[in-house]
Amino acid sequence: MLKSKKIYISLILMLTLAFNLSAADILTALKHIPEVSDIKKITTNGFIESYTFNFEQPIDHRNPSLGTFKQRVVLQHNRPSSPVVTVLEGYMIWGYTKSEPCRILDGNQVIIEHRFFAESIPADGVIPWEHLTVYNAAHDQHRIIQALKERVYKDNKWLTTGISKGGQTTIFHRFFFPDDVDVSIPYVAPLNLDFVDPRLQKNLNRLGSGKGKATKILAGNSDDAPKFMIEDFQIHCFEIFDEMFPLFEKEIKEKGYTYNSVGGNRRALELMILEYPFAFWQGGETVTSIPNIAIDQSHEFYEHLAKVSPPSFFDDNEIKIFRPFFYQALTEIGFYDYKVRPFKKYLPNDKENITFEFCLDEAAKEAASKIEYNRDKMRYIAKWLQEEARKMIFIYGGNDAWSGTQVDLKKNKFCYKFVCEDQAHGACIEDFEAVTRDYIKDKITDWMN
Questions:
Q1: 130/240 same-domain check
Q2: Most buried of 42, 211, 284, 330, CB within 10 angstroms?
């Protein structure tokens, strides 16, 4: 009996030592990954230890001889045996916050910056636009996940997640590498099936009329709900354009915004008005916040416009930061456009709907001009989601402008989609009522065990 007790205690000590050794050895493990460099220890809330590092990637995975770039990654560690939640950013790394799936699973977390955003660009600072593809991005993420699986988290369960374009990125990675991880949770992820998917405008029309649930609720769930208030607001802004313009110029002078990319200050204000419906519903605004045409003054209209559709969106520096997104939207993943017809009286020089080519610089334009937009790519992924995808949970907001192109799972019984009707582009699991919220959490936990 005494011997058995000693053996039991020895086993406990060995397991404790192994646990502590693993927890303390993250840095050593990272150093043994050949592609990893520039490791820095950082402090992040909710984790025992955290590191940021660079991971060397081919500029083109189909042709590695073209050279490499360094991709930024963050690793946030708690316990060696905990699940690994990998946040696939669609843009740059925004911060080190613990994602919702990581909170649900009390897991470790890896954050991967998207190729050619922020710090994840070639050393010479020149973006090779033709290699900014969903194929290459998915292969970037695959190599990082596999390297960390081999050296750091060998026997763990893995989950990928992302928000908005990060949600799209999560879908694309899982499409190319369905077995890389166990579960995926894309949040508010559009899947556009054309260069300009008409479902986006159809959704805006629904939201902006009496048929929109949000509008009906705010109007007392009545059939007398206000119709077309959004378009009325836009038309009035065009009508008082000359009164609002000095207010706009005062603000941009104070903030240092410039608009060479879009064609000048007046054009920027026009685009702000055209962007308003999409920004309104994406941002979760309410119809009660719209100024009253019969009462309110021009400065109140401008203040509301700038709050919902801020002038920063079209600023030259902002466009430069997000240019990789616009390039991807125009070459592979689709986007919306601005409808000119309702405002042709105020936009006499615009004969066609306005797309976002103005956001590309000369190099990006040249690269994009060599690519014929292939609508079949996203349609093929949509078909895969309906027929082959497994263990994916999609979260959407019912009042989100982007929900017009939410995924359609059809009869796929192995994936789930949940729409929180009163939420917009910030919809998350915690927003659902208790029964649904608990069901989603239980499903995630069950899949990850």
A1: no
A2: 330
